[in-house]
Write a structure and sequence with these properties.
487 residues; alpha/beta; Rossmann fold; Dihydrodipicolinate Reductase, domain 2; 2 domains; nine-stranded mixed β-sheet; six-stranded parallel β-sheet; 14 helices; 15 strands; globular; binds 6-O-phosphono-beta-D-glucopyranose
Length: 487
């Protein structure tokens, strides 16, 4: 079944850092897919802005190479590629130098279309670029700004960044991307919770024993050692992606699926998080080398590093709905498999009517799989078919979205496709508001501070394992266990 595509109006999108990794790997392919699908009109303009000495022609060649590399061959069609390339323009600018900016203003001049500026650059440049845009008269009253993490490295720096952006852009025009919010399954979590009457009555401390949120990656930190070692799993993943997943799982039903209502509810969750005392309930780890691959410290280029490539923690949402229901969060690199999921583990049946020989009825688990194979599994206990009396066994009700929708696996749109189109449509629902980012830092700050000042280094774990032993203990001591990390 072909998806219904609602075209947006032609737009002018300026991408700063247009020769960088994110632009090549994600943004240009996302724009290509949306244009090919007929959603982004071909007469839109995508203006690359970067320090490199390129012109329109050479930027188009770079973009063509990026599409060939990052769009699956079966999705590349000549006409659509030509359309995207024809929409591209290039302006050379440097945040530190006023020289190129009048050219950008000239390129944009006269257009009354939606105008968006995507800052795919290091956050140190955010403020300066905004100021240059304003000084060069590139901004219309409705111009939109798109930024992405790291949005500060603690509450103080996040607040000062927010203030600096706010001096030029009204909050209703600022789009802070957390690409996890653009993932199909994450949006599906909201559909599941708020478009079905089935789950909501059970979605609380009375019926839910605990929630597990896992974002496991198989890759190490690769060539990002310098960035990663300054941030670690807590700043790179926990403060943003995992807390956002927690918010969507724990929040109250918003009055409407619209930006203010959704973001207000997420904010309430962040503000309800019980402060964590030092490193109690926080486990950190670093991956070991294998026979053929370097370990974390070597990848980071820092033999004395205490930065974590894995973190697991127990969070509590102190409100009426969730009182006493822990949320266990874990994320790490070089783990057994690439697997991300939210698992809602329900309480056991209050009383068993079956004899002991029937076996144990494990608790029901609703697992919302982000990757791989986005989908939902509900595990139920059933009678083992056939003779032999009442023997109980677990059986999953499994729905892979692509299969359920009749699409081929891997056909789900990338998060950036959705998010870039939302920017153009002017829909902030799936973007983080200033106060949300600050509330997330306010909760993480003491944990990060305790980790950074701890004398105990992170535990070392085997590459391609489930993480440090201590992380297992975090659950065991509560009489619970992590779900397996498996693809
Ligand atoms: C990014 C992190 O935000 O998310 C990376 O900086 C991480 O370290 C990535 O690998 C994971 O995203 P995804 O979409 O591959 O799960």
């Amino acid at each position: 079944m072909a998806a219904r595509v609602v075209p947006v109006e032609p737009f002018d999108l300026t991408v700063f850092g247009a020769t960088g990794d994110l632009a090549k790997r994600k943004l240009l392919p996302a724009l290509y897919h949306r244009m090919r699908a007929g959603q982004a009109p071909a007469d839109s303009r995508i203006i690359g802005a970067a320090r490199s000495d390129l012109n329109q022609e050479s930027f188009r060649r770079m973009a063509e190479a990026a599409l060939k590399e990052f769009v699956p061959a079966g999705d590349l069609d000549q006409r659509a590629v030509a359309n995207l390339l024809a929409a591209l323009d290039y302006v050379q600018v440097d945040a530190a130098d006023p020289a190129g900016w009048p050219n950008l203003a000239k390129t944009l001049d006269g257009s009354t279309r939606v105008r968006a500026f995507y800052l795919s650059v290091a956050p140190d440049f955010f403020g300066q670029i905004c100021e240059r845009l304003q000084a060069a008269d590139c901004l219309t009253p409705e111009a939109r700004l798109v930024v992405e993490k790291p949005l500060g490295r603690d509450l103080d720096s996040a607040q000062s960044l927010n203030r600096r952006l706010a001096s030029i852009f009204d909050e209703r025009h600022v789009y802070r991307i957390d690409h996890y919010l653009g993932k199909e399954t994450v949006q599906n979590l909201m559909a599941l919770r708020f478009a079905n009457a089935l789950f909501e009555p059970l979605w609380n401390a009375r019926h839910v024993d605990h929630v597990q949120i896992t974002v496991a990656e198989q890759v190490g930190i690769g060539g990002r050692g310098a960035y990663y070692d300054q941030n670690g799993a807590m700043r790179d993943m926990m403060q943003n992606h995992l807390l956002q997943l927690l918010c969507l799982t724990a929040m109250e039903p918003p009055a409407a699926f619209e930006p203010k209502a959704v973001r207000d509810e997420k904010l309430k969750v962040l503000r309800s998080l019980k402060p964590i005392d030092g490193l109690t309930s926080v486990i950190r780890g670093q991956y070991r080398p294998t026979a053929t691959e370097a370990g974390y410290k070597e990848d980071a280029g820092n033999p004395d590093s205490h930065t974590e490539s894995f973190v697991a923690l127990k969070a509590e949402v102190a409100n009426w709905r969730w009182n006493g229901t822990p949320f266990y969060l874990r994320t790490g690199k070089r783990l057994r498999a690439r697997m991300s999921e939210i698992a809602v583990v329900f309480k056991e049946a209050p009383h068993s009517i079956f004899p002991a020989e029937s076996g144990w009825a494990p608790p029901n688990v609703l697992a919302i799989r982000l990757q791989p194979d986005e989908g939902i599994t509900l595990s139920l206990t059933i009678k083992d078919p056939g003779p032999g009396g009442m023997r109980l066994r677990e059986a999953p009700m499994d729905m892979t979205f692509a299969a359920a929708m009749g699409a081929k696996a891997g056909a789900m749109p990338d998060a950036y496709e959705r998010l870039v189109m939302d920017v153009i449509r002017g829909d902030q629902t799936l973007f983080m508001r200033d106060d949300e980012v600050e509330a997330a830092w306010a909760w993480m700050d003491p944990v990060i501070h305790a980790a950074e000042t701890a004398s105990k280094p992170p535990a070392v774990y085997d590459s391609y394992s489930s993480g440090p032993e201590d992380a297992l203990m975090l659950m065991h001591q509560d009489g619970r266990r992590w779900r397996d990390i498996e693809a």
